[in-house]
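Example record used in the benchmark description.
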Amino acid sequence: MKIKHYLIVVLSLLTALCFFSAAARAEIHSMRFNAWTTNYTDHSQMDFWISISDTLARPPIVVSSLMVLAPDGTIFDMTNHTWQEFTKSFFYSARPEDFDTGVIPSGRYYARVIDLWGNQIINHDDVLVDFLDPPVLTYPTEGSTVGLTPTITWTAVPGALRYRIILQYEESGGHPIYWYDYNVKYVYRTSFPIPKGVLMPGRSHIIRIGAYDTDKDTEKRSRSVWVQFYTAP
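Model output (structure tokens):
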């Protein structure tokens, strides 16, 4: 029994050693940080996006602390529950009431990441808080029935350079899917024909339009309300 117990202890220690040895190699070496405003019909918010690279490509496992400091002194803890697996990045949204001053402040936002071994990286983004008006979908309209290749239209937004179509439908099993036409990832006009094969017949879909102020480090974004529509059988 003593030998068996000894072997179990040794194996446990070896397992732990392998884990920590692997983690030790997973040191952070770069961080990208962007902050921008997003305006919706019913509220506005500040969005934080952080992408972290490490030697083993294992975030968020390697992250022990992830904080954002706003110009007014508000600290946002993004360590837990902000990892998005599908984008492989950290994302967090803060509304005006989440800031100490009750408003979203302009100025320099700092992000700091610390890995399991105490290594840290600090980055910043300067934001001038302003808001784009949300676009309004003009076709399809709420509750309408359309064909399988409709031309989506929406209102122009002053100050917006580009737009993005965000379409959600339910596939078999009820799992929502977001569709972007990656060949025309951003639309520089206020209409877009949905290609054949995207919409499914006899189903319910929802769609919204995103507006962006620049082609590069976007500081201002807005979103239309979701519009539900149906496709003919």
